[in-house]
Specification:
The protein contains 13 helices and 16 strands. By secondary structure, the protein is an alpha/beta fold. The chain folds into 2 domains: 139 residues, Aspartate Aminotransferase, domain 1 (Alpha-Beta Complex), CATH 3.90.1150; 240 residues, Type I PLP-dependent aspartate aminotransferase-like (Major domain) (Aspartate Aminotransferase, domain 2, 3-Layer(aba) Sandwich). Helix 1 packs antiparallel against helix 10. The chain is globular and about 55 Å long. It starts with 10 loop residues before the first strand and ends in a 12-residue tail after the last helix. The N terminus is likely disordered. It binds 4'-deoxy-4'-aminopyridoxal-5'-phosphate. The site of 4'-deoxy-4'-aminopyridoxal-5'-phosphate (PMP) has 14 residues, from helix 3. Its cofactor is pyridoxal 5'-phosphate.
Length: 443
């Protein structure tokens, strides 16, 4: 009933699905519009400004410029860059935007081979394989690794691409409580021994799938503990580093580097190029045997057009900057900056009493709102005050665990961050957030 939420008061309807006869909940505003299509709350059509590190979104339909606190542009590479951009333009002239061929026909350029070698070296595995899309990397690779007779044990909050890959694999899928290695062990014990002492492993193969940084939680994976459990039960580990590769670790090598894990202890490393590297596509890095196997049997490698060459060149250049192989120390500076920015923003939000999920060093910061009706209201009010945040609700999260999500970039200045904090604080009051008690600092 709050006037701040005018037009967003939620109405929950129990509806019956015509085909499955299952009941489901639909949440809509008082005009009968699903909350997900609440006007003004989502970014709609945007224009970007490459020359300001893509920190500004221009909402073309509303003609308003917004500070972008919603992109995965962790290192600021999704923008014109003095090292990357000229090389990307050259590759576009040389190779064009598409190979119009699959890798095994005419789609295998020198750039693709170079990036596979570079990714393998960067993440510390013997070999790597590229895919045109991060989503497809999970959804097509998981079925190529495990099938009927196999067992997948998946974190309960894994990304939809993993969920779909697991479902499509034909393997048995079990879920363990989010980021809870003790529960993972319980599930494994139950599945291996069936609760009874058994002398043989009933599964052809067991794969445990986790994420480096959970995209809706901002939390770091308890990777050392997960690996210890996997080793004990002889399960393979599959790590999705979409949000952690390039974004965390002293030299940008992701959660393994940050948490002191030897990459040799992770069997399959997956990552995307759509975040820290400012490009598109995905990779799997693993042993030579696994990569060879994937090259021979994975339909998304054999039947899909290879990654766009300029996109490949962008990743090659970005990794070279991160590694300092461009002859500058810009990469090291970006990594130090994203860490400083993330930790500053998180601690300021906490001081204001917001319930912020996630761990230090993580650039992903969800602020809990709970009430589904407050998600579009919060986002809309932020947009009105020229700050873009990402509204996240059902089905990406459970129904009553709605939130807005902030992604911090190395390219945000202290001024940008302070502006973002001021707006979020105003909007928190306006929308009516339940703040947490904040400990007073001793003077
Ligand atoms: N894995 C995770 C954990 C993700 O968050 C995402 C998308 N944000 C993907 C995979 C899919 O990656 P892409 O957007 O590059 O297709």
């Amino acid at each position: 009933k709050s006037s701040n939420l005018k037009g967003y008061a939620p109405i929950c309807l129990g509806l019956e699905d015509f085909y499955t006869r299952r009941l489901y909940l639909r949440i809509q505003d008082c005009f009968g519009r699903p909350i997900a299509s609440a006007p003004d709350a989502w970014f709609d059509v945007v224009e970007r400004y490459s020359n300001d590190s893509n920190k500004t979104l221009h909402r073309t339909t509303k003609t308003s410029k917004c500070l972008n606190l919603g992109s995965y542009n962790y290192l600021g590479f999704a923008a014109a860059d003095e090292y990357c951009t000229p090389r990307v333009i050259e590759s576009l002239k040389k190779y064009s935007a598409s190979t119009c061929s699959v890798r095994v026909d005419g789609g295998n350029t020198k750039l693709h081979v170079e990036l596979e070698e570079l990714v393998a070296r960067f993440v510390g595995k013997p070999a790597a394989i590229l895919f045109g899309m991060g989503y497809v990397t999970n959804s097509a690779i998981i079925p190529a690794l495990v099938g009927k007779g196999g067992l997948i044990i998946s974190d309960s909050l894994n990304h939809n691409s993993i969920v779909n890959g697991a479902r499509g694999s034909g393997a048995t899928v079990r879920v363990f409580q989010h980021n809870n290695p003790a529960h993972l062990e319980e599930v494994l014990r139950e599945q291996i021994a069936g609760g009874q002492p058994r002398t043989h492993r009933p599964w052809k193969k067991i794969i445990v799938i986790v994420e480096g940084i959970y995209s809706m939680e901002g939390e770091l994976c308890k990777l050392p503990e997960v690996i210890a459990v996997c080793k004990k039960y002889k399960a393979y580990t599959y790590l999705d580093e979409a949000h952690s590769i390039g974004a965390v670790g002293k030299t940008g090598r992701g959660v393994c580097e940050l948490l002191g894990v030897d990459p040799a202890d992770v069997d399959i490393m997956m990552g995307t190029f759509t975040k820290s590297f400012g490009s598109c596509g995905g990779y799997i890095a693993a042993s030579k045997e696994i990569i060879d196997h994937l090259k021979h049997i994975c339909p998304a490698h054999i039947y899909a057009t290879s990654m766009s060459p300029p996109a490949v060149q962008q990743v090659i250049s970005a990794i070279k900057v991160i590694l300092g192989e461009d002859g500058s120390n810009r990469g090291a500076k970006k990594l130090a900056q994203i860490r400083e920015n993330s930790n500053f923003f998180r601690s300021e939000l906490q001081k204001m009493g917001f319930e912020v999920l996630g761990d230090n060093d993580s650039p992903v910061m969800p602020i809990m709102l709970y009430n589904p009706a407050k998600i579009p209201a919060f986002s809309r009010e932020c947009l009105r005050q020229h700050v873009a945040v990402v509204p996240v609700g059902f089905p990406a999260t459970p129904l009553l665990l709605g939130r807005i999500r902030i992604c911090i970039s190395a390219s945000h200045s202290r001024e940008d961050l302070i502006k973002g904090l001021e707006v979020i604080s105003n909007v928190g009051d306006l929308v009516g957030i339940k703040y947490l008690p904040v400990e007073q600092e001793e003077t």
